[in-house]
Hints:
The structure holds two protein chains of two kinds. By secondary structure, chain A is mostly helical. Chain A has a single domain, classed as Helix Hairpins. Chain A is built from four helices and one strand. Chain A is elongated and about 50 Å long. Chain B has one domain: Four Helix Bundle (Hemerythrin (Met), subunit A). By secondary structure, chain B is mainly alpha-helical. The longest helix of chain B has 37 residues. At the A-B interface, strand 1, helix 1, helix 2 and helix 3 of A face helix 1, helix 2, helix 3, helix 4 and strand 1 of B.
Amino acid sequence: MIDVIYFVAVSITLFVIGIAGVVITRHFLLMLLSIEVAIAAAALLAVTFFYSIAPGNIMLLLFTIWTIAASEAIALVSFYRYLSKYEASLDVTRLSRLKE
Amino acid sequence: MLDIIAFVVITAISVLAAVLILVFKDVLHSALAMSVVFFAVSAFFIIIDEPLLAVLQLFIMVGGITTFMFVGVASARYSEFKHSKFMLMLALTAVVLVITLVPLLNVSIANSGPNTFGLANIYTSLSSSASLFYLMLLLMFGVAFGAIMLLKRSRQ
């Protein structure tokens, strides 16, 4: 039998890796992929919490999380296509100096 | 014992895939690693005995978001990128993990639902036709990714 605390530990681990990815990389697309991983970890933690600690209807919260993830994916691909079209760099330190 | 092995394997796959997102230098490969993380989270839902949420996770996250990213990324140019701060990421991840996980070691959660998840959960979840969705999605996902890789090779 697997204790519920291990699911919490796994979701925290995935969340920390996602946040670390946002912090260390300068690649625009990889930062957003790391945020997607953090969102997936949040979904896992929410399901574990609701199933074990406070059983109830989780669908509303989970669909909110999925909607945020989907919106971010749409924004990600749109920006990526836009930057690729004008052959701009995907380095966020250079993106912040686009006006120069 | 089998449930613990399944949990450990899925945990290892998910953590490894999450790290590989930042290791791969091709964005398409990073998107594939992200889809593996989504798939592993769906497998965790199966262990927690939530087959409906697992199938929805497959549909929305793996089937929808990842396919959308594949198409969007594959139809644009590919980018090579070198990560200069990979060791910093490892150190940062280790420090934050220790800080967050050590307090969890002796925690007992006051719960009103089940506190443990066993092999019976996996059997009941997979027997409720969720395994069919997994099989179909794996096949379709493999075909889609193979087609994109073939297209990429033919362009090169």
